[in-house]
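DM from R.C. (forwarded with permission)

"hey, sorry to bug you on a friday — could you get me a structure for this? deadline for the figure draft is monday and I only need the backbone to look sensible"
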Amino acid sequence: MTLEATDTSVLRLPSTNGHVPAASESPSLTELAHAAGTRFILAVFTTLSGKPCAKLVPVESVEELETEGVGFAGYAAGSMGQVPKDPDLVAIPDASSFTPIPFVRPGLALVHCDPHVEGKPWPYAPRVILKSVLARAAELGLEVNVGAEIEYFLVNKDENGTLRTADALDTSRQPCYDARDVTRMYEHLTSISEAMNTLGWGNYANDHEDGNGQFEQNFQYADALTTADRVVTLRYLISVLAEQRGMTATFMPKPFADRTGSGMHMHLSLWSDGASAFPDASDPRGLGLSKTAYSFIAGILEHACALQGVIAPTVNSYKRTGATSTSSGATWSPRYATYGGNDRTHYLRVPDHNRVELRGGDGSANPYLATAATVAAGLDGIERDLDPGAPGVGGSTDTLPMTLLHAMDALEADTVVAGALDAAGAKVSDYFASLKREEFFHWHNTVTPWEIDSYLTAF
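My reply, with the result:
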């Protein structure tokens, strides 16, 4: 397979049933880079916290990158399960994820990598973890397709360091879908849309969300690994292109106390032998779902409290899920582990008979870990033949964790969700929980303006 030098199409498009071509069917990274006119390649991996790490590799060294990978000091990168004395992480590129991004810089491309240590996949690497969970699904004869909704705020800081909306005119009480607010951000939104469509992702909508300064940009679903890669890539593109226009794009779950938070809703479906395993026209519950789909739902609901520790993994996440009011009048964030039909108040919404939408996750979630933990929870429901109960009722007594600390307690007590993090062969769940507890207590030990306002002269 060859490409014209001007072709910037993404070379990892799934077929209609979500398959990605086998490596033997695909061109090499070297061939792809030269065919696309690439000058430099960002070799990218993410830490457990979701930070994208990269080295910039000139195309003259692409063969070395492809055959040997590129080395990183894992401890310096961040949360990767290493200490300073440990051997290098070596990022091995997945050529099928090669993505030209000339709209960032002419001649620039990126490729997602699987970190290895001493020749073996590193079990603390989120992409490696997801691939391990998907392999388990494949053993059950199932493939996983995922769509992800990316919400974010466009902000700046004023001269006093106060966070404010980048668009000073975006001030209405209910700005959601406002055509005028969208038009003022036309250049930014269309640059992201055109980038996604150039890459073949199928951007189908770009809108103003519920909070002032908040936007959402959507692309078509794909197989689970492809979508996780695309979430990482899209966050990078949104951040960099916003920065070029003098704005900061933040995926922080709750940057403003009085506004709706930013979610990362995931739309999930299971496939077998090229056909969806979800639809069943004879469903007596009226949602058009199969027994497999209901068991998948039941598994997610049963593990929801532990799952929150992965899909809502920051202190700030619980300002979003714990919100009681916003300036618009709705939080759009579930408080209980329920499911139902086309009703956005549920933890799991069933918009149609082809998919379920998990609404508990937020913009701080690592897409690889979030997908791995969710899929593992759903598969447990299938393997145990669980039933979620009637729509609108199932799981309703399970209040989601109130803080990150509560979520870590639930995570450590849940062998299925913890097992998903451990799927590649290390006790990543213990390490992850320790990092998150440290994060919680670091925040807890900080004296906040609220405490000064509440206690300074109270006694």
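R.C.: lifesaver. Residues 281 and 288 are 5 Å apart (CA to CA).
me: no worries. Confidence is low (pLDDT under 50) at residues 1-23.
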